[in-house]
Write a structure and sequence with these properties.
Length: 559
């Protein structure tokens, strides 16, 4: 049709053209796939316009995986860009004189011509379409999962993830639109696949026991036992890929009732106190020893401030906030699986993986105590809620230690290597005894008859108050001198008066009666106190002669 334009004669004879059938477009001219043969100019232009509308309404389908989106080409911002050129080509025949029309007819007979409809593609429109419809298309890669049930491993295969490559998909769509709209456009979105890190093939290598360790908590109360069961379950089933590190604290926290924990004994500033999650250090300790036997890399481990009773010195691992933690790293080329559980009154951790160590090689660990540190004299703390003179031991003394742990490697039963795993110091801590307030001094009034004097001497008789608990020298605690008494004060009154005891120590009740009034009630044995024994003189000044001391919690109850 360009040749038509080169020879076009713009001059025309409207009068001659009016009603002249020769003005209809001859055979051989089409726009796209639409023939314009026999149409007038107006009819041809209407046909072309309808054809373009049809093209812009053609569906464009974009698929991504199992998802597909279909929209009209015009909705993607596709527009007709050569309208002027098409109109000029269609109008050429009518706008020519008779000679020129004849030449056009002959040319079209020899070489039919189709004028293409050219469209323009909006890059912004395509990007908006793709991102608006495909941004949520895709799926995350899912790792294979392994669990241990009834003594067997069960593996769920991995799922490959994918996401739409927006830039590549937009480019593919633009190229498809650029090839024309005569045919339905189908474009497959370009996706990027993401392979999961953990595959079934990798997990299938987990078959062998690399190390296992158990500790006993038979002396623990219900709350501490619950904490051990809850905490072990939070670590159970963890898989460490090669080079991956597990933090005991991160697995177990937060230490709240909402997370399943209860209040139980733990160490704090050299004392035993109740805290939510008390006892979880036995979890970290058991895991630590299993990891040693499996020869995992111990990335972080600290000992307790004081010794514990469920393992030997230097075999423990404490958890306290983030500054004391147990962290273990998988040094192998294959994954390891951590199993943790409680059964009866025992907690057990087992590390599974692929055994690569020689069969004739074995390891063991030995605890060595280097020094013992005396805890010193008991620490007394006033507790005004206790009965006067009562003494209750709330914490046993803890002997301090310096120790170290040895790793011993043998091959065919012969020691080949001995290395120090850790050297630790455990603080000494004195026993802590709560004491009640001092026993009040109860005055006793006795009458003493004075012989009459001679009349006129002006001497009258008077009575003298004698306080129970005066010493032989006649010095009463806080009172003036008075005659001695034969009976020593009770254990409770002795603590207040500080006097030396007499030949025999009566019970608290007897002493009170001898004072002329009832003494303070003696709490029963269940409260951790009892009355003084027969030899009250053994009590030092300022202390009760004797008392029953309530035992502190055993080390197994503590962290």
């Amino acid at each position: 049709m360009d040749s038509f334009a080169a020879e076009a004669v713009i001059t025309q004879d409207p009068a001659a053209r009016a009603g002249d059938v020769s003005c209809r477009i001859p055979q051989g001219l089409s726009v796209g796939d639409r023939s314009l043969e026999g149409l007038t100019l107006d009819e041809a232009l209407e046909t072309v316009s309808a054809y373009v509308d049809e093209l812009l309404a053609r569906p464009v389908t974009l698929t991504a995986g199992e998802s597909s989106i279909t929209a009209a080409a015009g909705e993607l911002g596709v527009t007709w860009s050569n309208e002027e050129e098409v109109t000029e080509a269609v109008s050429l025949y009518e706008n020519s004189n008779l000679l020129k029309r004849y030449m056009i007819q002959e040319d079209l007979k020899q070489e039919p011509e189709s004028v293409p409809v050219v469209t323009e593609i909006s890059a912004e429109g395509v990007e908006q379409f793709v991102s608006g419809h495909l941004s949520g298309v895709g799926q995350e890669a899912q790792d294979a999962v392994i669990v241990r049930e009834n003594g067997e491993f069960i593996i769920t295969p991995e799922v490959t993830g994918y996401a739409v490559d927006m830039e590549a998909t937009c480019q593919a769509l633009r190229e498809a639109l650029g090839q024309g709209l005569e045919q339905e456009i189908l474009v497959q979105a370009v996706v990027k696949e993401t392979e999961p890190e953990v595959t079934a093939a990798k997990l299938e290598t987990i078959q062998d026991v690399l190390g296992t360790f158990s500790t006993d908590f038979s002396s623990s109360g219900a709350a501490r036992s619950t904490n051990l069961s809850v905490g072990a379950a939070k670590i159970n089933g963890r898989v460490l890929m090669p080079g991956e590190t597990l933090s005991g604290y991160e697995c177990l926290q937060p230490f709240t009732e909402a997370n399943g924990y209860k209040a139980a004994a733990s160490y704090e500033n050299g004392q035993v106190v109740d805290s939510i999650g008390g006892g979880v250090c036995q979890i970290s300790t058991t895991l630590y020893n299993a990891s040693l036997l499996a020869e995992l890399e111990i990335t972080q481990r600290q000992n307790h401030s004081m010794t514990v009773g469920y393992v030997k010195p230097s075999q423990d691992a404490a958890i306290a906030g983030t500054y004391k933690d147990i962290k273990v790293t998988n040094p192998y080329d294959t994954p390891v699986y951590i199993e943790g559980y409680t059964k009866g009154r025992t907690i057990t951790f087992t590390i599974y993986g692929q055994e690569t160590r020689p069969e004739n090689r074995s390891i063991r660990f030995e605890s060595e105590t280097l020094q013992r540190i005396d805890p010193g004299a008991p620490k007394e703390v006033l507790n005004t809620s206790l009965a006067p003179g009562a003494r209750v031991q709330i914490q046993s003394a803890h002997t301090g230690l310096k120790s170290r742990l040895w790793k011993i490697v043998t091959v065919d039963g012969v020691e080949q290597e001995r290395t120090i795993v850790s050297s630790d110091t455990y603080n000494a801590s004195p026993a802590i005894i709560q004491i009640g307030p001092p026993v009040p001094v109860v005055p006793e009034t006795q009458s003493q008859t004075i012989p009459e004097t001679a009349a006129g001497e002006g001497v009258t008789g008077e009575s003298t108050d004698i306080t129970a608990g005066q010493n032989p020298a006649g010095e009463a605690a806080g009172e003036s001198a008075a005659p001695d008494v034969s009976a020593a004060p009770s254990a409770e009154t002795a603590g207040e008066s500080g006097a030396q005891s007499g030949p025999a120590a009566p019970s608290a009740e007897t002493a009170a009666e001898s004072a002329g009034q009832s003494g303070p009630a003696i709490p029963p044995a269940e409260t951790g106190t009892e009355s003084a024994g027969p030899d009250a003189s053994a009590a030092p000044s300022g202390e009760a002669a004797a008392s029953q001391v309530a035992p502190a919690p055993s080390p197994e109850v503590m962290q």
